Amino acid sequence: MLDIGKIAPDFTLSDKDGTERSLSEFRGKKVVLYFYSKDNTSGCTRQANAFAALYDEFKALGAEVIGISRDSAASHLRFAEKHSLPFVLLADPERQAIEAYGVWQEKKLYGKVSMGVVRTTFILDENGVILKIMPKVKPDTNAADVLAYLKNL
């Protein structure tokens, strides 16, 4: 896992439109980087919709929201269109950012152990420094918790 106060690892991934996007292009803005398991699952949909509902408030604070999962760019496009998601979704099927941020971990569900993305949110400052790490977040409260944190900076 990464540490608060360190520069967040840069990466380049495709967005929902197939355009390559790098974390470094968001320098000068605060970044809310949230990792989630899969498009169109109940928890991930609730989390994405919560970020979408508060998106104007994030923008007003100079923050960009970026969601990352292993889904393809085409899956992200369908997910974003279906739920009118206004923020950046990045496809990481090769787990480049997922592993660099340490969110590919062992998970247990109903006694079954498997590897997967642990729902985690990173808040970065304008220089790409990690301000806060929120591990194992709850999909229904994550966006509001992040917004409250940013408002108190």
Short description:
The protein has 153 residues and is α+β, with helices and mostly antiparallel strands. 29% of the residues lie in helices and 30% in strands.
Q: What can you tell me about this protein's structure?
A:
With 153 residues, the protein is an alpha+beta fold. The chain is 29% helix and 30% strand. It contains 5 helices and 9 strands, in the order βββααβαβαββββα. Strands 2-1-5-4-3-8-9 form a 7-stranded mixed β-sheet. The chain has a two-stranded antiparallel sheet with strand order 6-7. Helix 3 (73-83) links the parallel strand 4 (63-69) and strand 5 (88-91). The protein is globular. The two termini are 23 Å apart.
